[in-house]
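Q: Predict the assembly, please.
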Amino acid sequence: MARRHVSMIASMGACLALAGTLVAACIESPQTLVAYDAVVVPQGTGSATLRGWNVTLTRADVALGPFYFCASASGSSTLCEQAVDEITSVALIDGLAFMQQALLGRVHGLSGSVQSAAYDFGISWFATQESPTPAPNTPGPGHSMRIEGYAQKGTGAFAFTADVDVVPQYQGQNAFPTATAEGNITSSFYRLEVRFDPTGWLKQLDFDDMAAQLAASGDTVFHIEPGTREHSAIIVGIKNLAPMDFVWIPLSNP
Amino acid sequence: MKVRHPRHRVARPLVAMVLGICAALIGGQARAQGDAPAQITPPSVITHVDAVYPRAALATRKHADVVLALTVDIDGHVSKVDVIESGGKDLDEAAIVAARQWTFVPAERAGKPVASRIRVPFHFAPPAPPPELVPPTPAPEPELPTHGAVPEEQAQQAPRAPVAASEPAEVQITGKPNPPSRGPSDFRLSGETLAAAPHATGADLLSTAPGVFIAHPEGEAIAQRIYLRGFDAEHGQDVEFKVSGIPMNQPSHIHGQGYADLNLIIPETVRSIRVVEGVYDPRQGDFAVAGSIDYDLGVEERRSRVKATFGSFNTQRVLGIWAPEGEAQETFGAAVLRRTNGFGDGTRGATSGGAVGQYKIALPSDVTALLHIGAYAARANLAGVLRRDDIDAGRVGFYDAYSDPSARAQSAGTSRTQIGISLEKKTSDGARVEAGTWLYIATFRARTNFTGYTERSVVEPTWVGRGDLVEQSNDDLGIGGQISYRSQRFHAIENTSLQYELGASVQTHNIAQAQNLLMMPQNETWDQRVDANVKQTDIGTYADVDIAATRYVRVRGGARADLLFFDVDDKLGNFIPAFSEKTHIEGFRRTASGIAAGPRATVEALPAPWLKLSASYGEGYRSPDARTLEEGEQAPFAKVRSYEAGMTIKDKDRMSLTAAAYETDLSYDLAFDPTTARLERIGPTTRRGFVGYFVAKPAPWLNTAFSATYVHATLDSPPVPTPDNPTPAFVQGQALPYVPPLLVRADVGFAKKAGIVMGKELAWRVGYATTFLSARPLPYSQSSPAVFLVDATASVRRDFLELSLDVLNLLDAQYADTEYAFVSNWQTTPIPSRLPARHITAGAPRTILASITVYL
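A: Predicted assembly structure:
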């Protein structure tokens, strides 16, 4: 009788172990890790009519990154301490390469809904940094972007350059603390397109005034530098008049 | 029809059941406590004979208890038998006939044999009906083998009597009553089982229990982290802990609700542990969500000793135990000092010490008192967490700590001093009154940094990036007590009986707590998060009945209700940030209260003496953290509902198998939030699974225990989204993080006598334990790898000298003691990530400890 009990017990133990092993394989994964490429898609032609001036850009080197995509509607540092997806690199891209989609970086993160973005233009002020610090590969170096071009109105024309610094306002905050970005990422089969029109960033520039200043100074090229009124006008253009668009393009499974 | 030592027979033609008195006495589980000055060693049983249910009584088929007083002469024979409690003439006679055949090692006083008088209970139950002519009696309490714990029916006491040289010395058979079983998951871990494998701490003893895994992610000065049957109970939020009847959980603790530091327990003084997985006993109070754990302290071998241990990482430990002969096992004193450099790169050094003393004395009027005092203090440096990606990239070593000053400043210091006294009185009719009171003072100060540099000051919002070194302090003065009355067993109708118990418990706490952020290396405070005083009172009452409905069916259960009162002085309530206009005075004082009540019941069926079927249901609760309550709020207790069904197959003391399926529903769960270093609410959770527990002692020299616990733990609904957390990490139906779905544990111990060496007996002992944790789910679809650990021990003893070698993590597995997923910034990459990343605290590598013990 004892032998029978032992046999029964051993069988039950084996069943327990087997069942446990089988069921243990089932662990739900409500969110999945994703990784996909982000590319830059410059918009426009590099030329635009702004305040009666025909403006043509000949150079637009832009440092972009890092990017943090957030689930909250606001991507500020207090509301987006945790990102859904992110690009933790800074890329120097040609804003006039309309025919190619330059790789901005690899997006890493989780599946889920994105409602906002926070990002920098190569100059960051992380919580552990005492002051805004440019990435090594920024144009200049040390600036967020280098823009060159010329403006023409009637018979008048002048060339201009701009070294633009898009600097975070507070320590621990991104230069662009919150921007609209809507997407629902369900897998890694996506491509993020970052679209912008660099000529749109110049919408706030007063080219008439710039031409007058240039005539008064006798210079041939108008240089826009940080701290000037023109620099502030470009910042307004970047942040308010022509912000970037973020479009998630689903890809078919390979 | 009498049987001697029938331990290897499953079914035997007995009609009387002596409830384990043989094992208790032979195993030394019940030790006599003599008059201290007389130094009397109680008699121990050599041969016992079961009583035979008299044929003359078969007609009435009655259940009855007979209590005899035996006088054991100096030759170890029973010279006189008196009936103290009669069960009727026939049954009395049967008991006397059996008892007169018992033989003993006589009691001793000052090393010389003396006559003694002991009290022995017999329980008679009628035989089961045909087909067997005289089938075995269903065992009322077919418990797992216990060691050092005496079934309640054995814990009888005889009145003390003056000891004269010419008169028998009357000694008391004492021992902690073994509470009635509450189902298959009411596990009793015996000393033998616990001793099979090495255990570094008192908390680590729990690893032997089914479904329990113990981790020490925060060093020696912060409470262990416990996983129990699908619950990540953190530092005790879901498990009610008691040590010698004194509650260990600290309510509203700053580091985690129900914080219970078991470092006070000296493992060598643990006699047995009762682990109830589920909420089925009305005695279970606050924090008994996953279950409850009671440590029974006692020193079985009545010899004082000194033990010195040396080993890996410059670990040194000295232990002294005072355990005088002639005293009860509960009477002992123990003190320990320990220091270690800890593993890794020097960031885990610790110094600790503790002392525990108990004294059991007999008072007039058949009252027994147990005095308890315990203290523990420790300070330890902490290595903290490491990001997996940093380890994988070689930026930091697995066992190291970040070189950052904030990471290197992590430490903890704690102390706890507790005293308690419990009184017990048994009345002549078998009823029992118990009362006890206790008091403790516990301090806690910890500096931990889980997230690196992500925090922003609330006081001065422009202050940021100064290091997330969270300083927590918690000073708790707790006082409480309990009283209970357990009636005699009433036998109103044939084959039925009833016993009830009424009890009440109270405890009140005065807590001062604070939480700040510190900047290193200046040790400057750069943010204040908590500054509060909490007064909390818990008044609980319960009723419990034990009904033998028929010979085969037994019902146990009752109800419990607790009133909790909270008084919070939140000095940072209505906080005014630096940039805001001051419109009021900061502070928010509030009171709240609530009542938690629920039933608990267990139904047992005993179709055969070797088989017990059980089904249990119970409702328990966990009190809320006081600071989370609003003014006048009905305290939102976390309500737990436990269901269980299972069976126990038992072949006497040789083998036992328990299998059970269970479900536990919790109204809201808590999970560790590394940004606050505290527990935060998630949502309702459900756990379903099954457990198997196999204990066997196939030979006197072999002791084994094996358990496998599977749990499917899920979150029933996600937490409420908030503006700053619109998509919480936890979503409906996901596996609960940090909980291993499958936990398998085996403990095997061999102990044998090797013969006589130079005139003294040589004994050796080896043992090992294996622990397997399946992959643990983490938040954000991540999971930690499975863990397999082996611990081993070996010792040899001759007379007063014992040498032992313990090896923890024998295979030197590199594993994560705990693993988390959250956002951190340890400045190991130029651009910080804001994605939740995996973080680990390293489990200890292979640790070798050599000990020498000198018995005095």
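Residues 2-24 of chain A form the longest helix (23 residues). The first strand of chain A starts at residue 33 and ends at 42.
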